[in-house]
Amino acid sequence: MYLWLKALHVIAIIAWMAGMLYLPRLFVYHCDAPKGSIQSETFKIMERRLLKAIINPAMIATWLIGLYLVWDGGWYLSGWLHAKVALVVIMSAVHGVYVRRLKEFAADKNTRPAKYYRILNEVPTVLMIGIVILVIVKPF
What we know:
This protein is mainly alpha-helical. It is built from five helices and no strands. It has helices at 2-31, 38-73, 79-106, 114-120, 123-137. Helix 1 runs parallel beside helix 3 and helix 1 (2-31) packs antiparallel against helix 4 (114-120). It is elongated.
């Protein structure tokens, strides 16, 4: 059962990361769309569906399955896991920032330039690199 849950955990992570990398790209393009335009309204639909159908469920599954794996595998005393959880908490905070930005776009109240979203788009990648290294290498 543990290995099946581990596989589901990895699948959930992949889905979460795909959404976390794609949503800010949509924001970059949304910045260039005139408010109220068909293009802007289409971006709003795409962003909302991506968040509700993929990113949110994937994050929830990642956390729930991951916490179970930690408990079942007895990993809760491992130093590498504490560092990994810290990075996953930061990733979850970035997720929260994305939700706030999505709400701003939905209300036509975005004030940030496309460059902000290009930079924000790199944060999940850096976090993911750290998380993967901690899980695979287990340096401490």
